[in-house]
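Thread title: Can someone regenerate the structure for this chain?

I was given the following input by a collaborator and told the matching structure tokens would be attached. They weren't. Posting the sequence so someone can regenerate them.
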Amino acid sequence: MISQLDISNYALIERMELAFAPGLTVLTGETGAGKSILIGALSLALGDRADSAVVRQGAERAEVAATISIKDNEAAKRWLREQELDQELDNGGDECILRRTVSADGRSRAFINGSTVPLASLRALGVLLIDIHGQHEHHSLLEREHQSGLLDGYARHANLLAQVESRYREWRRLRTEAEELAQLSRAGGGELELLRYQAQELDALALGDDEVRRLDEEHRRLANAGQLIEACRAGIAELHEEEDAITDRVTRLAGMLRPFSTIDAGLASAVELLASADTQLIEAAAELRASLQRLDLDPQRLDQIDRRLGAIHELARKHRTPAAQLPALHEELRARLERVEGADARLTALAAAIAQAAQSWSEAAAELSTSRAKAARKLSQAVTREMRKLGMPDGSFAVELEPRTPDPSPAGSERALFLVATNPQQTPRPLAKIASGGELSRVGLAIQMITVEQTGVPSAVFDEVDVGVGGRVAEIVGQGLRALGTRRQVLCITHLPQVAALGHHHLRVAKSASKGKSAVTVAPLTRTERTEEIARMLGGVEISATTRAHAEEMIARSETSAEA
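Best answer:
Regenerated them for you:
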């Protein structure tokens, strides 16, 4: 859901901060007041193309930021995590910020949650957040995969989709293994001989998993044995054996202080600490004696370890890997050798397994195709009925299923294509080919009303949805928008009082001029201001008491009856 839209130096807008609420928000204003500028700014934040023409005259750059709540939008959260742009989610937030800047020289930059991203990323996330229906490019219903997703959601066959995808993954895994083995097999005997030689070298080395670390430790001890022995002997002497050794001095000091510990409690504590220190010093001397016993000046063993480490490091350099990684490399070479030696036999077995996996996928895909065909017929009929209610009496909607590639696909054998005809003489054409922004908006509204429970996009924007309609049809369009607004956030630019009266919230767009410069402002309307605005839409320049009463009646009626 759109929480806020911040606009700076975009077209006729110098600075604007707009907050949006759930439900249906209508935007009204005089013709040419700049209502579509807002949609253009929002579309810019969602990744639409732009050039320097959008920068306000005299400004260095235009900037638009959309703050969008994704609390219940799992698809958007998943996308952000996959792209590692989920800092706000990690910090406990449930909003994301899409920001776009366009410089006066035409350069553009895109940001998601403060991170610079390619424009394609902004578009990819945008279609998961907001649907824009109208003359602007940002329109997820025009995306072929989105159309397929809507059909699948409408059909409610998630279990079939999961089965097809699972069987595809198994087929793909087997194919990948076969391709890798075929490549190994084509490499010929040269690689096989090399693998055998490398494996034999490592077999002969017979390096243990932790042997390098243990040899290094033993080598350090033996190489420094003389110094270690001297250090241990000196330590034992200092602690315990020499005249006036440290332990003797500590014992004498404790004995000197002990008679006075009954007089001063602080001295008693000091005596206890000295006694404890004496015990620890005796234990330290014992540890030094034990270390001394373990130390041995053994030049023969040191030479043996030198030779062993030399062989290990020589082979590590040869394979360009750390010495400690040689055991892992050994296992890898063994496994690769086994694969190469058994490649031909495994390829024969894989061919049969791949054929079986493809057949298994085909069976699941056929079941999915049957379900899709049934859902396509139902969706076509339902959307056609809604289109005709929305002022397109001769309109028709159809879902065509187009074959995908002959190879298995994780999404099945076909994808959906939405086709529309707006008059009886017209051949149904893809939704993206509809020329009229108003027609596209109404078709989008019809689709949204039928599939609202299936679509995961939480916000919809309708521009020009009421073009070419009036009277009863205009009220039906408004009721449809308001009903949709009870389940999603809806923004609608409208010129019709019948639609405006049905909004849960009302914003008025106005254009003003000062010192030869035009500016666009947007303001939320109070109940009284809303009555005046709808009266203006009903009556034009001269607004009578009767017109105001009619406007008030329309608002009151929408509040009491339109929710149904």
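The mean pLDDT is 83.
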